[in-house]
Structures are given as structure tokens and as C-alpha cells.
């Protein structure tokens, strides 16, 4: 009984015991607030930040110092080389070695290829043998002449003593003179053999193909083992050249101008050339000559234009657009003012002309500008922009100060 009573007492609730400690819920609340703030910050960074606007841009360039005015005529043409050569051997032979590749620069006289010299070496050996034979003939005739002259001298003394007949002496003198003539002929044969040896040496040099001038290799036409010939042999099995070399310093532009407008073009007239491959690059140029012949089929006249700028980006057969510019009267020490930008870069804000320049942080800055004269597809800007800056082309009305931009076709950073 006592044991059961003790067990019942243990099961009784002690209402005088202190209550358990409360849980620390504030720790969880703080952690939740921190997570919510982090999520809000990330959302603002990725969603609230303004996306960059895709735009097209163009560089601001300085005015051309050619003293040119507005365009009076536009035309299209191609870049051509005045000095271009397809190099070939002067003889027919098998290619033994080719030492050029496309794009390689070569100097004047540099060896481009070698032909098999077996035929040239055989001809040279033959010429050397012929020279040695002719020299031996000279020595033989010289020995006979020496003996004949001695015999003629002896008979001359005997004739004076009337010991031999006069006819015998005359015969000996004739033989001596004949040997003298033979010796002269033999000596001439030696000279002919020497000339033939020299010619065979030139033939040996013909097996080496050299560059006629300094330039760039634009085509490699032959490979080792092929037969090359300066004349076409037909059938497509014989090459007529080793490669093509272009003197890049001789590049110029040729355009066809309609007969109705050729009167606007004058020699030494300033020209602005634009390559199709680099539409934002304006190249200063000048008219060289107007070819005095017309194309009856196209009713055009060819005009040659010199490029005043040498650049490796300019290569033959590139398409080019040219603008013939008015030539202003020259003034003393007058320099062109301002810069030039494409017409598409100029717009209006509040009735005033402005342009949007792209800063280093890819944001635009609105610039109030003072436009000048029109220059074909460009415009002179007297103030507000500096050479070397980049401007936005065809700015939209939404574009404003501080807008982030990105070049069309590139990825935003």
C-alpha cells in the first residue's frame, strides 16, 4: 500500500514549479528580415536597373585639309593596282621549289621559285666542252704554224744559196700563210664557244624566278612538280605563272562617270572615298586623270583617282564610293574649322540642333552643336564636338542625357 501511495504522489502535478523558459522567436524574425532585404536588393539590381539601349555609332573626325567643299557628283568604282604582275619563268620547265605564300611581302630581286636545272646544266656542260675543244684546236694550229714558219725561214736561206728551187720555197710560204688563217679561225671559234658558254649560263639563271619589284603576293599559282611555261601549252596541264605580286603603294581608284556628268569632274579635283567594307572611314583623295575615251556600251568615261592615305586595309578590287567635291579657292594659312560627323548623328531637342556623344561609361551626353556646311553624307560641326569622340546615329526621341547605350550587335556588360 505504501508503495502505491508513493507512486500516486509522483504522478501529481506540482503547481508551485516555475514555468518553462519561452523560445527565442526573435532570432528567426531577424533572419527572415535579412533574407527579404537581400531578395529585394537583387530584384532592384536586375529589374529596376535600366536596360541599355541598342544604338549605332560613328566616330567624329577632323575636317579634311584638302580645302574641299560640298559634293558635286557621286560615283562608284573599284580599287585597282597600277603595278601588278603575274611572275613566270622565261623557259619551260618543271617546278622544283616554290618559296612564296599568299599575303607574303617580297622585295625586288627576291627568289620566288626554282625550276629543275637539269637541261640548263647539260647545255652548260656541252658549252664548256665545246670551248675546251676550240682551245685545243688553237693550240694544234699554233704548233703547226710555228713549224711552218721555221721551215719557211730555212728555205729562204737555201733559196738565196740556190740550193732549193724557188717553187719549193713559195709552197712553204703558202702553207705558212694558210696556217696563219687557220689560227685566226680557231681563235674566233674559241670566242664563239666562250659566248655560247655565257649564254648557257643565262639559261641556267632562267631557272630561278625572282620578284620584279617589291610588293605583296596575292596569288600562288604553281606547286612543286608542275610544268610551267611562259606560253600557254593548252590542255590545262601547263601553268603559265608562279604567282601574282601587287605593289600596294600603286593602289588607286577607278570609277565610271556618266557622259552627261563628266563635265563636273576636273583634274586635281578633291575627292572623298568611302570603302564599302568600312563605311565610316572617309579617305581623302584626288583626281589623277580623266581617260580621254568613252565606253560606247555604258556611255561612261573612266576617271582615275589617287588615294592620299596608304593603309593595309585597302586592297585591290574593293568596292568604293567616291564624292567629287567642290574645290574652294585657296587662302593663306587657312585651316578647316570644326569636325565632321554623319548627318544621321544630328537631331533637334527643343528646336535646337544637338548630338549625343557616348562617354567612357557607355552613357550618352547631350551636346548642343553649331552645324556648318553640308559635306555629302556628312556635316561640318563648328562647336560642341571634338575629333575622336563617338556619336549616336539616328537618336530616338526617348534618348536623353545619361541613358545607357550599347552598340547594336554587341552584348551588354
Automatic annotation (TrEMBL):
The chain crosses the membrane at residues 26-47. Residues 83-229 form the Multidrug resistance protein MdtA-like barrel-sandwich hybrid domain. It is found in: Cell envelope. Pfam families: Beta-barrel_RND_2, BSH_RND, RND-MFP_C. GO terms for molecular function: efflux transmembrane transporter activity. Residues 131-196 form a coiled coil. Residues 340-394 form the Multidrug resistance protein MdtA-like C-terminal permuted SH3 domain. InterPro entries: Beta-barrel_RND_2, MdtA-like_BSH, MdtA-like_C, RND_pump_MFP. Keywords: Coiled coil, Membrane, Transmembrane, Transmembrane helix, Transport. Residues 253-325 form the CusB-like beta-barrel domain. It comes from the Bacteria. GO terms for cellular component: efflux pump complex. Belongs to the membrane fusion protein (MFP) (TC 8.A.1) family. PANTHER family: HLYD FAMILY SECRETION PROTEIN (PTHR30469:SF38), MULTIDRUG RESISTANCE PROTEIN MDTA (PTHR30469). This is Uncharacterized protein.
